Amino acid sequence: MRTLPCHALLVACIVTTGCSRQSKPDEVDPMVVVRNFSLRGFGWDDESAWPLEGALCRLFPERNGKSEVCRPTCVLAFGSIDEPTLFLVIEPYGINLNPGNNLIRLTLLDDLGKMRASAICLVCGMFIYAHHHFVEGFDLPVIAIESIRHQPPYQTHWYAINENRFDLIRIDDPEWGENCNNYHDGHRFFGPKPPQQSAEEWEADLCSNDRTRVLRALVWIGGDHGIKGSHDPRKGRGEDPVESALAWNVRARPAVQVRVRELAKSNEQWEREAATSMLPLVERP
Predict the structure, then answer these.
(1) What's the total number of domains in the chain?
(2) Is the N or C terminus of the chain more exposed, i.e. has fewer CB atoms within 10 Å?
(3) Would you say 170 and 274 are in contact if contact means Cβ atoms under 8 Å apart?
(4) In a 10 Å sphere around its CB, with 0-12 CB exposed, 13-18 middle and 19+ buried, how is residue 27 labelled?
């Protein structure tokens, strides 16, 4: 994998009052501002990020006065160094009442300032670093978001850009293991919300040759969906029993079990590791 040098630093998720300046008619094209800020990172209270915040408010007027949106902390540029064609804006988002985790927003813009994709994602602890890689089998770069709880090791979430959405395709966590995502707790799973799909659609994703769909399916099917047949009594917190039952039904499908065993022997590291960790789930009676 080839990595481009880019980074972002964030020491806290602090709410601001949205865009504080009114745009002037003679101000520079907002996408010129976005380009100029690419490959730079900011702390949450870095005044040098204000022009970028203003440019984003001009591109998306609905951001003005939004108290739940924090200042952007990073812009990653995709494409050639001289003529990037896509820009990813990363920013903390809102107040998260779950101790130890924070929300971030990912926004993908094209070179004309049109939004291509957006997602609200939960990260473990404090978001501290972002970078992207060109990975075989993906049309666009894969985004790596690194975060830290109170001390190392870091946890890394990998996102693929899939048409008009971001999909979580891998979790690297030396402490909890690969792809350990807790859907059972309802509000604590990392990444954006997975797509609403039937068992047949999840099976089709897993059995496809599209790496984004395969890895997305492995993360969701292999996540923690509680004990089969159980229901979390904590109102408003536990996973929807329908979704939990769906996950267990998908795991029980013969084609899914065959595919997981096949992927556990894959030459691709990500698929092989995720499928290997799932073997006890699909082999459980």
Answers:
(1) 2
(2) C
(3) yes
(4) middle
